[in-house]
């Protein structure tokens, strides 16, 4: 245990620790992203990389929208289609 483990007890202290941890992750991620952008600025194929990234983001966006906006088929409709397929298959 660390020397200040008792200082941040309780739900409020735990929330503060979580927020501080998230802030640290965000800052380090932004720093890494800026370093990557600096590296991209010195490449000769930057336009192609940007176009590829745009296509990738559009494809990801399509997948997300399809995942959350697609309406699943009605349960009874699916069952009725199965019954109809069985009847057609057996000749009833």
Description:
The protein is mostly helical and 92 residues long. 78% of the residues lie in helices and 0% in strands. The longest helix is centred in the N-terminal third of the chain and has 32 residues, at 10-41. It contains three helices and no strands. It is flat and about 70 Å long. The chain has helices at 10-41, 46-69, 75-90. It starts with 9 loop residues before the first helix and ends with a helix.
SSE layout and pairings?
Blueprint: H1 10-41, H2 46-69, H3 75-90
Mean pLDDT: 82
**Radius of gyration of CA atoms, rounded to a whole number:** 27 Å
Largest sheet data: none
* Share of β-strand residues: under 5%
N-to-C span: 73 Å
The best one-word shape is: flat
**Derived structural class:** mainly alpha
Helix content: over 70%
The low-confidence parts are: none
Total count of strands: 0
SS field, number of helical segments: 3
The helix/strand order is HHH
């Amino acid at each position: 245990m660390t020397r200040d483990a008792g200082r941040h007890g309780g739900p409020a202290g735990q929330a503060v620790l979580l927020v501080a941890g998230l802030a640290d992750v965000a800052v380090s991620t932004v720093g890494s992203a800026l370093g990557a952008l600096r590296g991209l600025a010195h490449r000769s194929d930057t336009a192609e990389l940007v176009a590829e990234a745009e296509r990738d983001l559009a494809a990801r966006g399509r997948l997300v929208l399809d995942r959350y906006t697609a309406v699943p088929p009605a349960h009874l409709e699916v069952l009725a289609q199965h019954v109809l397929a069985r009847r057609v298959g057996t000749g009833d």
